[in-house]
């Protein structure tokens, strides 16, 4: 509860005087008939409320006299509770959020209009993130259209860059959740390595990861697992996981557990048979060396974009040695994504990258990869890293990553 109050304090410090901010929890869309997709709260809403339920609204007002907050929740859902469970109560909402003012959602627009008029509000803040022109509008974007019609003289500001800054530096309680998610993710990877065999379907190997998560009480993954054997490992977001993993194949697995809405994100590439071929080992060690170079480059005040440049320079030298490239531009044929992204309440956590310098307290991934389709080799090695005052802490350091460590561990699994 105190954590979310602290987050609200951070938010109000960024708002202009005579302004209001509105953040929507969201609502799960329907699949078909009366079945909905699983609900996941908008992370900015959760960040300032601690509330996990859908169809709620957070309202903050900052005037010359005071800062006020109100949480709007659905009313008691009556007999429907026997089918889907009861809506959150006013007292539960107060306890979870630490907010005393809790009202019902059907009074929001009336309250909003009265407040805007009474206090002569000049600015309205909404989370206006919109990455896809063709996507269905969010609740905030739809509400923004209403605001334009009802209050054409009021200034509208975007909360997205504000939340991007606020969520960038992780608090201890956030790191605690992430460490738990990462530790469970590590256990899942060891289970896959221990049980993988030639001839298994990719989804069979993935199932060992899923079992560990379920056994540990994890009901949500950070994202849809990638389990890509052989040539399919060169497809970055291959998620079908429905082909056979043959002896001689590498399998690239990118997976993560989610704990209390915070994520782990790890990738390991290992031989289905338990033994790397010489060519696979050569490429793997090339990626692993790049992984280490990027780790060594991480420290406060280093431009985020520098990390990717360090890796590309390394790849150019190594790929040139084995005759795959002649120019830096040709590296893009075998390495075609960034080496890092922010990690937190979202797997690709919000925030700008290219114009940002690293700061202590950021959590990011380090995930160099090489994808040589003609050799049917796709390799990525990904760990989660906390930027510290003098470098970085590898939060997933306990999960094996060298050729020797992987082969020895998998050999033990085959003897058991």
UniProtKB/TrEMBL annotation:
InterPro entries: Aminopep_P_N (IPR007865), Creatin/AminoP/Spt16_N (IPR029149), Creatinase/aminopeptidase-like (IPR036005), Pept_M24 (IPR000994), Pept_M24_MAP (IPR001714), X-Pro_dipept-like (IPR052433). Its cofactor is Mn(2+). Pfam families: AMP_N, Peptidase_M24. GO terms for biological process: proteolysis. Gene3D superfamilies: Creatinase/methionine aminopeptidase superfamily, Creatinase/prolidase N-terminal domain. One of its GO terms (cellular component) is cytosol. It catalyses: Release of any N-terminal amino acid, including proline, that is linked to proline, even from a dipeptide or tripeptide. Its EC number is 3.4.11.9. It is an enzyme of class 3 (hydrolase). One of its GO terms (molecular function) is manganese ion binding. The keyword Manganese applies. The keyword Metal-binding applies. Belongs to the peptidase M24B family. PANTHER family: XAA-PRO AMINOPEPTIDASE 3. This is Xaa-Pro aminopeptidase. It comes from Anaerotignum neopropionicum. The lineage of its organism: Bacteria, Bacillati, Bacillota, Clostridia, Lachnospirales.
């Amino acid at each position: 509860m105190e954590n979310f109050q602290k987050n609200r304090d951070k938010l109000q410090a960024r708002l202009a005087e005579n302004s209001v901010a509105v953040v929507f929890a969201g609502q799960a869309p329907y699949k078909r008939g009366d079945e909905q997709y699983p609900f996941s709260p908008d992370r900015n809403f959760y960040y300032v409320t601690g509330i996990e339920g859908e169809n709620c609204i957070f309202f903050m007002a900052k005037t010359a006299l005071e800062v006020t907050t109100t949480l709007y929740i659905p009313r008691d859902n009556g007999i429907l509770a026997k089918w889907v469970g009861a809506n959150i109560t006013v007292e539960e909402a107060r306890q979870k959020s630490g907010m005393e003012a809790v009202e019902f959602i059907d009074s929001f627009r009336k309250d909003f209009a009265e407040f805007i008029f009474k206090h002569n509000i000049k600015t309205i803040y909404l989370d206006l993130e919109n990455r896809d022109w063709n996507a269905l509008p969010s609740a905030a974007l739809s509400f923004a259209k209403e605001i334009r019609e009802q209050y054409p003289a009021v200034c509208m500001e975007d909360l997205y860059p504000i939340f991007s800054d606020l969520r960038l530096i992780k608090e201890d309680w956030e790191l605690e959740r992430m460490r738990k998610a990462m530790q469970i993710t590590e256990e899942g990877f060891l289970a896959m390595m221990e049980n993988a065999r030639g001839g298994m379907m990719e989804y069979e190997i993935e199932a060992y990861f899923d079992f560990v998560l379920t056994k540990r009480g994890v009901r949500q993954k950070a994202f849809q697992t990638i389990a890509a054997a052989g040539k399919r490992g060169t497809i970055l977001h291959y998620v079908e996981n429905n082909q056979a993993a043959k002896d001689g194949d590498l399998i690239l697995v990118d997976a993560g557990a989610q704990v209390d809405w915070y994520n782990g994100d790890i990738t390991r590439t290992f031989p289905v048979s338990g033994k790397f071929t010489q060519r696979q080992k050569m490429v793997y060690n090339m990626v692993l060396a790049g992984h280490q170079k990027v780790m060594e480059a991480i420290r406060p005040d280093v431009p985020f974009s520098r990390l990717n440049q360090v890796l590309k320079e390394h790849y150019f030298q190594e790929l040139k040695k084995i005759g795959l490239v002649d120019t830096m531009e040709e590296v893009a044929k075998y390495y075609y994504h960034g080496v890092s992204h922010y990690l937190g309440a979202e797997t690709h956590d919000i925030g700008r990258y290219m114009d940002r310098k690293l700061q202590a307290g950021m959590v990011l991934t380090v995930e160099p990869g090489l994808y040589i389709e003609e050799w049917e080799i796709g390799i990525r090695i990904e760990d989660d890293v906390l930027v510290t005052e003098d470098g970085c802490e590898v939060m997933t350091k306990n999960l094996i990553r060298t050729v020797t460590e992987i082969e020895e561990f998998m050999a033990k699994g085959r003897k058991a």
